[in-house]
Write a structure and sequence with these properties.
5-stranded mixed beta sheet, globular
């Protein structure tokens, strides 16, 4: 079966599931514990509709809903008898809510199955859109230059990549279906693609696409999807003679610059004393990367609480080190984010810093200049991640 046929099948089953959920939404009100609700004729029709719709659900991993709706008259009689006997009708109540539980289980399995089908194609499409957006923006003036122009150019950018991105975005929406809630700027991105002016492309690159990409990433792997593990009894591992040693190196090349930024975001949110971590998406840095803004809270023994504003810049380098010029450029860009005042600049890299870059940062700090600079090379990130194996696995670093 090809991908298009598979999606059509998933869509049809999803429609049938929607119909069953609506039938149950009406039917469940007949199972009132206090008083008779709804007519017997209405419930009979709902039960028959339920039976008619069940064949529209295909098995998922060998399981599907096969039972009809409970007998409502029998349920009501059991409730009356239980009340007179002064007992709790646990079994009857369990049967009365079973259809809803079955529907929730089937919905979960359906979404998980679809995520597995679309994951590879979603990755391919997101990489193409990311590359296309970057190619268009690379040939445009930086946002600050464009805004400072006396008469900003409102002419549409003529590029075939616009149609390419719209096609990929439409296919992405088809792939996602109902697997994820759309919280990103989907409608804004479509509107900006339709206008296609310089300002629109800036919005796409720095606002729309990053937020849409977050929705797509959420659809690739659900929170309940397990990380693949070997088929082995963990208790027996400790009984064996193990060889070798534990590695500390991480596979930094598997990350894209956007992946590295997201990794830093996750690390900072997990660090004690760091709060209000958020993206900053209007930067004129040469790498067009997204800065992070947050607050670092410190407590002293006298009970005083001090809050510092922190800006973090990500430098995902696997084949070179961060140079003094890049540190200087980072300092130059900071006024874009003030006020409020920035107390600390963290420059984090998946590589290292040149000796001249380290010397520049140390002299800046020794001279009492602000903001204070902290350099986070790969060794520091590896130390932080050693305490957070969940992030290492989630970001495919080992």
């Amino acid at each position: 079966m090809d991908l298009d046929s598979a999606l059509a099948t998933f869509d049809k089953v999803a429609v049938n599931l929607d119909k069953l959920e609506k039938v149950w939404e009406r039917a469940q009100h007949h199972f009132s514990y206090e008083a008779r609700t709804g007519s017997a004729h209405e419930y009979t029709n709902l039960a028959l509709n339920w039976e008619d719709l069940l064949p529209g659900l295909l098995p998922i991993e060998g399981w599907k809903i096969t039972t009809g709706l409970p007998d409502v008259e029998e349920f009501r009689q059991v409730m009356i008898d239980a009340k007179e006997a002064g007992v709790f009708p646990r079994h009857a109540i369990a049967e009365s809510v079973q259809p809803g539980e079955d529907l929730a289980k089937y919905r979960h399995l359906l979404d998980r199955a679809r995520r597995r089908v679309i994951a590879a194609r979603l990755t391919e499409l997101t990489e193409r859109i990311t590359a296309a957006v970057a190619a268009v923006v690379e040939g445009l003036p930086a946002p600050e230059e464009w805004l400072e122009a006396h008469s900003p150019n409102r002419q549409r950018v003529d590029t075939p990549r616009n149609d390419e991105i719209q096609e990929h975005l439409a296919e992405t929406e088809r792939l996602l279906g109902q697997t994820v809630e759309r919280t990103g700027r989907w409608s804004e991105m479509r509107r900006h693609l339709n206008f296609g002016q310089i300002g629109d492309w800036h919005d796409i690159a720095y606002y729309d696409w990053p937020s849409v990409l977050a929705d797509i990433d959420a659809a690739k792997v659900g929170e309940s999807d397990p990380i693949p593990v070997p088929d082995i009894d963990l208790g027996r591992i400790g009984q064996a003679d193990l060889t070798g040693q534990a590695t500390t190196a991480l596979s930094w090349p598997v990350l894209t610059p956007e992946d590295f930024e997201r990794l830093l975001f996750d690390i900072l949110r997990d660090l004690e004393g760091y709060q209000n971590v958020e993206w900053l998406t209007q930067t004129n840095a040469p790498d067009r990367g997204r800065d992070l803004s947050l607050q670092r809270v410190t407590h002293d023994s006298a009970g005083t609480v001090r809050t510092e504003r922190v800006i973090v810049q990500a430098k995902h380098y696997t084949s070179r080190s961060v140079s003094p010029r890049e540190i200087h450029d980072s300092l130059t860009a900071l006024p874009l984010w003030e006020p409020p005042r920035i107390n600390l600049l963290i420059i984090a890299t998946s590589g290292r810093f040149t000796s001249d870059a380290v010397a520049l940062a140390e002299k800046h700090n020794e001279d009492g200049n602000r903001p204070y600079i902290e350099l986070w090379p790969d060794s520091r990130l590896e130390m932080l991640l050693a305490q957070r194996p969940k992030l290492v696995i989630t970001h495919r670093l080992r």
